[in-house]
Amino acid sequence: METEQIKIRSAVEADLDRVTEIDVKNTGLEKAVYWRDMFNRYGGRDGRFFLIAEHGGETCGFIIGEVRAWEFGSPPCGWIFAIGVDPDARLKKTGSQLFAAICQRLKDSGVDQVRTMLARDDSLNMAFFRSQGMMGGPFIQLEMPLD
Amino acid sequence: MKLQKATKCALFAVLELADNRDRQLSATDIAEKYGISANHLAKVLRDLGRAGLVESVRGAGGGYRFSGNAKRTTLYDLIQLFEDVGTTEEGREEGDMTEIGQALGRVLFEIDEIAKATLKSITIATLLKTMEWHAHRERVRQDGTAA
After folding, report:
1. Is A113 near chain B, with CB under 8 Å?
2. Closest Cβ opposite residue A126 in set B121, B125, B129
3. A21, A145, B82, B143: which is deepest, by most CB within 10 A?
4. Which domains does chain A have, with CATH numbers?
5. What is the model's pTM?
């Protein structure tokens, strides 16, 4: 599998339509307002990263993460909480390059650990993050309905 | 989590063969390295052959070769060839249908689902990569300690 020429850069407002479109393709949910909010909160802020992958001038993927400190008792560490690659642009190492880029930025921000959280049945993304070297961590997510 | 002997033999064999794709290995070679019965392993290798994961190589030298897709075959795929993964005996014994039995069953189900999600997310290729990552992190750690 060759590595295509992918350019990684910070998101700009003009990327939001494509981010929304990629997310619709992957999840079936249209969340334009959510992605605009994410751009406002994570675009161009210290310790926060909203990165875009571009191939041939076309946005083909994105990843969002930040440094979080002392949540759940954890010392500062990087968190990746969104990733999306256009299904038509898969198998070009886009996800791997996005992941490597955000990890470097998190490392440059001074943290030495990166975390993410996934649905148990999200086999595709779970396999992806594991293929990048991530393993099960020391936290467990608990939940209950509020009724 | 404890695996049956046949399952462990299968995992050792497939991972060893996938890690050495340019070589053929005999059942004896693998059995000696992992301290398992060559006869037992031979039966397991036949089952793996039927599943399309290994193939026997005829001629001088002989042996087996990995013939599956390391990037698409998960630990779950391998394990479930030899045993049920994460199933419980819930509902099959009288006590399971009591309130306490059902409460206990929900906890065991939670454990099973986490185990299944983990095994389904680790491909043969990823498992082999973890060896490299572990070795690299050990080298970095030792270099840091030495410094």
Report:
1. no
2. B121
3. B82
4. 7-131 (3.40.630.30)
5. 0.87
Kindly state the tokens that stand for B62: 């002989």
Mean pLDDT of B104-120: 92
The string of pLDDT tens digits covering residues B34-77 is 999 999 999 999 999 999 999 998 876 679 999 999 999 999 99
Q: Which residues in chain A touch residue B73, judged by CB atoms under 8 angstroms apart?
A: none
B73 and chain A: CB distance < 8 Å anywhere?
no
Q: What is the DSSP secondary-structure string of A114-142?
A: EE----TT-HHHHHHHHHTT----S----
CATH code at position B26: 1.10.10.10
Structural domain range at position B77: 5-146
- Decide if A120 touches B, using CB distance below 8 A: yes
Query: Are the CB atoms for A66 and A56 separated by under 8 Å?
Result: no
With 70 as the cut, is the pLDDT of residue A2 above it?
no
Q: Residue B18: which of B59, B86, B63, B66 has the closest Cα?
A: B66
- The string of pLDDT tens digits covering residues A62-119 is 999 999 999 999 999 999 999 999 998 887 899 999 999 999 999 999 999 999 999 9
Tell whether B114 is within 8 A of chain A (Cβ): yes
